[in-house]
Amino acid sequence: MPRKIVLHAGFHKTGTSTIQQCLRANRKALMPALAIRLKGQMQDLMHATRGYSTWRDPLTLAKVARRFDALLADLPEMSKRTLVLSGEELSGHMPGRGSLADYSAAVDLAQLYSDVIKARFPGVPVAFLYSTRSAASWLESAYWEHVKSASMTLGFDEFADAYGHGANLPAIAAQVNAAVGHPVQTATFEDGGDPVTALLDLCDVPTPLRSHLSQVAASNTRLPRDVLLELLAANRAYPDRAQRKAAKQDILTRMQTS
Questions:
Q1: Structure pTM?
Q2: To the nearest whole number, what is the mean pLDDT of the chain?
Q3: How many CB atoms sit inside 10 A of residue 66's CB?
Q4: Looking at residue 65, what is its pLDDT?
Q5: How many CB atoms lie within 10 A of CB 107?
Q6: How far apart are CA 40 and CA 60, in angstroms?
Q7: Which of 6, 49, 111, 172 shows a CA-CA span of 20 to 30 A to 240?
Q8: Is the distance from CB of 117 to CB of 72 less than 8 angstroms?
Q9: d(CA 228, CA 232)
């Protein structure tokens, strides 16, 4: 069993892609201390967590439990290493999709992870990390991500009116802290914060090992505003999914080749 389990369970648009890129790029160097599972290795689980955040029904939550337990059951022996699971969708979908207005599902999911770990690996220490961002900054970033990656047609002010109350990320982390009975840490990438270091600290990665880690550039950064406005116009102009996807891909291709 792992010596410790750390779940970096969110939130979207808080530097999570950069953290995961760092773990991916340094997987070999970190191997003496960490066993790493990223989103690509948890697709079945992510599908269920997204479903639960949408439907909030007992059957889907039970599916999350089965798939999370199966993930743990498939682990190799790692008694001297920390298991780190990093994926923002461990907290479900990003708010802003239809009626999904906040991250409250993250509390249920974190409690489930805690219970499943306790049943399979009794006595193994568990900790949670949630990377965060100021409410105003997160809300703007989440809006433009929905414009880019989904079919958002609302203007920003309309989006903020509908989903602004879901932008208080530290409040959700505090609810998780009250629910799980394990250490819950937050780290912001604003104001000089360093979520990568916070995660390595929580995983007890030795200082000498860190000196061998390669640096990575920020990942999934925001597109230029003129490109985002074109994508928003495409969302509004093409109700048909296939036509919309083609139009947006054309915009992104022109940006890359200009």
A1: 0.95
A2: 95
A3: 13
A4: 98
A5: 19
A6: 21
A7: 49
A8: yes
A9: 6
